[in-house]
Design a protein that fits this description.
single chain; about 700 residues; alpha+beta; Helix Hairpins; D-amino Acid Aminotransferase, Chain A, domain 1; OB fold (Dihydrolipoamide Acetyltransferase, E2P); 7-stranded antiparallel beta sheet; 24 helices; elongated; binds 2-(butylsulfanyl)adenosine
Length: about 700
């Protein structure tokens, strides 16, 4: 064990050395100061938890230098004074690594991880495999060799077989111990792999300082780290805030050159523990031993969100088979080990060219400009079209046709255009002129003064009818099976579907004769449409496409009426009194029911047999056991389906939320729950329930 168990003694020794309390023989004092300085280097550079002031540290360092100057015969290469060498390195010598420095294969999603897990199980012949998952540090890789507990060589990766000898610069990094007690384990020679990085805050400060000194600022910490390792002046290298994190033992032999990997050294985790105890900086606090693919994925997704708060740049995670004998059984290709894989975090931004703009007419007549860009991969999906929202958005961002735009997508969020890369303009870009007539029906578009949206006001506009019908039949609304978008478009073109009510008056005899329509599909379509007639009115209220009325509001509204026609006589004020209905929503409902065309539509639907009454059996909440309580379900549920779970919450008067936040009361976690569960655990007020506990809650 390194410093940990000695801390008390070293703290006391520090005090007596600083205070000069004790008389030492020169040899003993040199020895004492060295061990104290090493201890404080470790506290400062490895743990980032210093326990003495810089001034006291400098006093000790100065004393050591004085003593060594008086007794040059007592100077050893691992003395803290011997880190920074005077003079310049001429050329970096080429050195062969003890084990070749392979790179890692990349993976990007859960499927890739599943493949990797499957392959490892095949290669090892073991049905269960433990993995270590740890951050992938974005820096410059190095290999350190210790012999007889002394650092004898540090090298860059080079071509993987031969690297550059950067021992002089590596010695200048205080996070790299010049000596380490490997011999306690019988290890005579050992090669360690790691990454030289610059912490985010250090990098920022360095650039800020450079700016003040009118020096050129650095582009990114990875390039700065690798450039700094190759500086000829180790003093300058030492000033760049470099730190080494060690994450792998690639070679270890005893005095007789006997390999110790897989015997003395058992697992990756215990290797990292060993390095940690020897005073190295390691990922130990940020790694997890995972026993299943689901556990790996949960940890990866947790990191995907928290990596931005991590003090070191990471570009992914590394998943490693924990058992070293199993690693050996997996083996390596000439490029990468088969026992490890890198999981790359999704890039958040990409650039692409804006090639065209489409104007889409929504069901309320709103015209939305949609940018067509050259397809680009971003955060795991290929993006070729992105909403530009409205005319003002285009003007504010000064977006032109032919521009290169920066696209961002964070997590599950819909991609959006961050801005234009103005530097890449060549003068051929064209100003975007928002159309003044509807692209579907050629009616003039209108834009009310206080609004940002251009609208087509033509009630008969086919594009609007199309969107209205698509919305009407959708899953959350009337949920009509067998009437998808392409059939709707086809039926509109054939004149079967001018508007919503025509759904219930389709010419089945003609449809039967159409190409691609057999008797069975006609029967299915008819059944889907017929069964929609008996839906509860909250579905109809959702399906009508009233602005600002989604499922939740529709459910709130439905509780307050006997029939949908009751809304006809309500004032904005009446409507605002309904729980869950604000003034904006109330106005929009009022406007909808003030329009004759809409009442006509409802009457027609009723004539066709569509339910417009609030029937007792439709009551959403059958009791109020969960009144005022919010729920979220995660993981795979075994006792009930997700839809049934949601229904149960609603029937008992509870509310469902879509994400973990402080508003959440209960998270019901099934098997293999991932990031939602870990996020919920961090919020003390959220109660975590099993499926059974949830069931007993509702009795
Ligand atoms: S393990 C033979 N672990 O990523 C396996 N590599 O793209 C040795 N890297 O060449 C590599 N963090 O420079 C490993 N926690 C980590 C890492 C890591 C960063 C680098 C390393 C490697 C490259 C592969």
């Amino acid at each position: 064990m390194y410093a940990a168990p000695d801390q008390q003694r070293l703290n006391q020794l520090t005090i007596s050395l600083i205070k000069g309390e004790k008389e030492f023989a020169a040899f003993a004092e040199i020895d004492a100061i060295r061990s104290v300085i090493r201890y404080h280097d470790w506290r400062y550079y490895v743990l980032s938890e210093p326990v003495i002031t810089d001034r006291d540290y400098d006093t000790l360092f100065k004393r050591l230098k004085e003593l060594e100057a008086a007794h040059p015969d007592l100077i050893t290469p691992d003395s803290p004074t011997q880190r920074v060498a005077a003079g310049l390195t001429e050329d970096f010598a080429q050195v062969a690594h003890l084990a070749s420095m392979l790179s890692l294969e990349n993976s990007y999603n859960d499927e890739d991880i599943a493949d990797f897990d499957r392959k490892v199980k095949e290669l090892t012949g073991s049905p269960t495999v433990g993995y270590c998952v740890e951050p992938k540090f974005d820096g410059s890789s190095i290999a350190l060799v210790y012999e007889n507990d002394q650092l004898v060589r540090a090298a860059t990766r080079g071509d993987g077989t031969i690297g550059e000898d950067i021992t002089t610069n590596a010695r200048a990094l205080s996070s790299i111990p010049l000596s380490a007690a490997f011999s306690k384990l019988g290890i005579h020679r050992i090669e360690l792999r790691g990454e030289v990085i610059i912490r985010k805050d250090v990098f920022e400060k360095m650039n800020k300082d450079r700016k003040e000194l009118s020096l050129k600022t650095f582009q990114n910490s990875r390039n700065t780290a690798s450039g700094s390792l190759r500086l000829k002046d180790s003093r300058e290298a030492a000033s760049r805030g470099l730190e080494a994190v060690l994450y792998h033992i690639s070679y270890a032999v005893d005095k007789k050159d006997k390999n110790l990997i897989g015997t003395t050294l058992h697992t990756h985790y215990s290797n990292i523990e060993l390095l940690n105890e020897c005073g190295f900086k390691t990922p130990i606090r940020d790694m997890k031993v995972c026993k299943s693919e689901a556990e790996i994925e949960g940890f990866l997704h947790e990191w995907e969100t928290k990596r931005h708060t991590f003090p070191i740049e990471t570009d992914g995670m590394v998943i490693k088979v924990n058992d070293l004998k199993m690693q050996e059984r997996c083996g390596s290709t000439s490029h990468h080990p088969r026992w490890a894989i890198a999981y790359k975090f999704a890039a958040k931004q990409a650039q692409s060219k804006l090639v065209d703009i489409e104007y889409q007419v929504g069901r309320t007549g709103a015209v939305t400009p949609v940018a067509k860009i050259e397809p680009v991969a971003l955060a795991g999906v290929t993006i070729s079209s992105i909403s530009l929202h409205n005319e003002d958005f285009i003007k504010e961002k000064d977006i032109k046709l032919g521009d290169t735009v920066t696209v961002e997508r964070a997590g599950e969020v819909i991609p959006y255009i961050v801005g234009v890369v103005a530097d890449l303009r060549d003068g051929n870009e064209r100003v975007i002129i928002f159309p003044k007539i509807c692209p579907s029906c050629n009616s003039p578009l209108v834009r009310p003064e206080e609004e940002a949206i251009w609208r087509c006001d033509n009630a008969e506009c086919p594009a609007q009818a199309e969107e209205r019908i698509i919305h009407y039949v959708s899953k959350d609304a009337m949920d009509i099976d067998g009437l998808g978008r392409s059939i709707i478009i086809d039926f509109i073109e054939r004149g079967y579907l001018q508007n919503i009510e025509y759904i219930y008056d389709l010419p089945y005899d003609e449809i039967r004769k159409l190409e691609g329509w057999g008797e069975k599909s006609v029967v299915n379509l008819r059944e889907g449409i017929e069964s929609s007639k008996g839906r509860p009115i909250w579905r109809l209220l959702t399906a009508l496409g009233i602005r600002h009325v989604g499922v939740t509001t529709a459910k709130d509204l439905s509780k307050h009426v006997k029939s949908v026609f009751d809304f006809e006589g309500m004032t904005v004020e009446n409507l605002t009194n309904i729980e869950g209905v604000g003034p904006k929503v109330a106005q929009s409902i009022f406007d909808f029911f003030s329009k004759e065309g809409n009442i006509h539509l409802l009457k027609k639907l009723k004539e066709f047999g569509v339910n417009t009454d609030n029937r007792p059996e439709d009551a959403i909440a059958k009791n109020n056991k969960l009144q005022g309580k919010t729920f979220l379900f995660t993981g795979s549920l075994e006792k009930f389906t997700r839809d049934r779970a949601k229904q149960l919450v609603e029937e008992n008067g509870g509310t469902l939320l879509s994400g973990v936040s402080s508003k959440l009361n209960y998270l019901v976690a099934g098997a293999d729950a991932g990031s939602k569960l870990s996020k919920a655990k961090a919020i003390l007020t959220i109660e975590i329930l099993t499926e059974d506990e949830f069931l007993s809650l509702i009795g």
